[in-house]
Amino acid sequence: MTRKILALAIFMLCVNSCFAAQNLRDDYDIVIAGAGTGGMAAAIQASRMGVNVLVIEDTQYLGGQAVASGVSTMDDMCTESSGLYLEFINRVEEYYAARGKSIATSDWREDSKAFEPHVGHKILMQMAMGEDAPDILFGSEIVGVDSEKIITANANGVKESKKINSVIIQTPEGKHNVTCKILIDATEYGDILPLVGAEYRVGNSLSSRINPKSMIQDITWPAIIRKYPEGIPEHLRPKNSLPNYDQAKWNYEKYVTKNGNDFKGVFPVQMPVNFVSHNVYRGLPDSFLPGNYDASIENWPLNTKTGVNWGNDYPGQYRWRNQYGLPIAYLEDKTLRKRIERDALIKTLHFIYYMQNELGEPWSIDENEYNELPEAAKDLPEEWQRIARHMPPRPYVRESRRIIGEHVLISQELFENSLSYKDGNNNNEFADAIAIGGYNLDLHHSDTSENMEDDIGEKAEYIEAHSPRGNFQVPMDILIPKDVEGLIAAEKNLSMSRLSAGALRLQPITMMTGQAAGALAATAILQDKQPSQVKAFHVQKALLDSDVNLSLCKYSDVPETSKYYKSVQLATLYKLIEPREYPSMRAYGVRHYLNNMDLLQLVSGNKAQGRFGIDEKINDDDIKTLNERLGNIVGDLKLSLPLTTEMTRGEAVEVTVKAMLSVK
């Protein structure tokens, strides 16, 4: 069996392990729209907590932007990995290590993480298997949602809202109605929000008063290309360019040329670069050629596989009616969306022609990835359809509709949170933190002040001023819409500003927030509550039990192996008791902000860790503080903590957290 056939056989085995539409149940606890990084993490987490889950995916692939969109180089600036994301990366690393290959092949960095799309799909499928595996329905989508008006009570009082009852699923066999208690929107576009009738943000507009001039970020239709050492097969070398190639050639000459700059790892990148430097930016391990390489500079010429995701943003330099970015109509009008996506696909196909004919490189599309012609390519000439059938089935969408919750996360909050413990500053952590990420406020165009949300005070100048200076947390309340019960956001559609979304849109953090969405949904089901009524610490306990790290603070006397590790994280988040010593610099830093002095301090002085005093005895003041702060958290409930001065701080925190978790 050839390697190509083997890859396709593996993929078909994964698909066939899922069930057909006729095997759908009539009801599920949770229905998830979208099997991307967020959707699959939500499904795996909720299923492992014992509730039944249905995942609806319109392509034939798991992994969303990381697989179905071909962005399988993890944009991971966070120095803290945990939970399902860490499990996924560990499995990826084990897969390639067994084949003698590195996954550190991208971003010109030797600590990067990358994988081939078919491998990501396979591993996510493996993670989703087991006794309580979610049902996954491919090639289908939710086309309708039924809801009813209800009255609910939460910490903010009594309110009238909608409650999700059921969904209508369009499958290849026809339409099916399925009831559910909770619906999670994990689509790449936030397409469930208008179906539900939820209020949402789109660009700098509100759904109730859309500004047609609102703009969102560029999209990109990546391609997975590889080197053909013995020469490009004729069927992978189109003879004719597609229309408007001259414009694409002008564009790509700004990014990569035959005699371009040899990138030496010094930023900013001096453009254009040469082909070798271009390829290592989105370099991938190659399962189908012998040998091994990583992203260390001496190995760059050995790279044989990469993703095209640089210079092919759409519209990019082409502009949209003389503006940078895309109109929000891209999200709102599916007819326009199809036209834009077709143009984005063709722009990337132009790169393949440019690479073969202008650069003279023996590279083409990788036949081992995908094998289904995207809808956007169905009217292309046959010689280009042979290429396009191995393209990802959909583009990389950077910006989605976003729910409006009781809280909207803005860039200043994200920035201040990332400063926790920096230079001795105290605890700026979110008490209801459910994930840790790390990235810049990265917008691909539509990044001027006129594109920002005036009503929440965002400005273009904050792209730099408020960009996180270290790892940051994501609060739970931005997963919950304010006007629909039974709906949870999980992907790029959280309650946040466009700038905050620029940092929360990447694969590692969407997987982490997706896992949190699954934990929130499952907790709500198990407690017979609406998500808005669930207390954050119960969700946090479920995440901690699933090996998710939540606190930005590390203590030298509370390692991860400590029996008090989970309780101390909650104690730090809720400020139940002051540690003996806070860290005197940030615990983790986004790599772009780490300099040599920071690294020296981290290594030599252990200043990124504080001291909790875990084995010290508590005193009467500690007992008073723990009782008062617990009272502030649980409200009118009277809880008497059985604390004595014979207890250690670790024991006291354990007792206090146990009492907190007893409150439903």
Short synopsis of the structure:
This protein is an alpha/beta fold. Helices cover 31% and strands 16% of the residues.
Short descriptors:
3-stranded antiparallel β-sheet; alpha/beta; about 30% helix; 24 strands; disordered N terminus; 8-stranded mixed β-sheet; 19 helices
SSE arrangement:
Layout: H1 3-16, E1 27-33, H2 37-48, E2 53-56, H3 83-97, H4 117-128, E3 135-137, E4 141-154, E5 157-171, E6 174-185, H5 192-196, E7 200-202, E8 205-206, E9 215-216, E10 219-220, E11 223-227, H6 245-252, E12 256-261, H7 275-281, E13 305-308, E14 313-314, E15 326-327, H8 329-332, H9 334-357, E16 363-365, H10 382-388, E17 396-397, E18 402-403, H11 411-418, E19 433-437, H12 462-465, E20 472-475, E21 484-485, E22 487-489, H13 498-504, H14 507-527, H15 536-545, E23 554-555, H16 565-573, H17 596-604, E24 609-610, H18 620-634, H19 649-661
Parallel strand pairs: 1-2, 1-6, 2-3, 5-21, 6-22, 23-24
Antiparallel strand pairs: 4-5, 5-6, 7-8, 7-18, 9-15, 10-14, 10-17, 11-13, 11-16, 19-20
Helix pairs in contact: 1-4, 2-14, 3-4, 6-9, 14-15, 16-19, 18-19
Protein described:
Helix 3 (83-97) packs across helix 4 (117-128), helix 6 packs across helix 9 and helix 14 (507-527) packs across helix 15 (536-545). With 664 residues, the chain is an alpha/beta fold. The strands form seven sheets. Strands 1, 2, 3, 4, 5, 6, 21 and 22 form an eight-stranded mixed sheet that branches. Strands 8-7-18 form a three-stranded antiparallel sheet, with no helix packed on it. A hairpin with a 2-residue loop joins strand 5 (157-171) and strand 6 (174-185). The radius of gyration is 25 Å and the shape is globular. It contains 19 helices and 24 strands. It starts with a helix and ends with a helix.
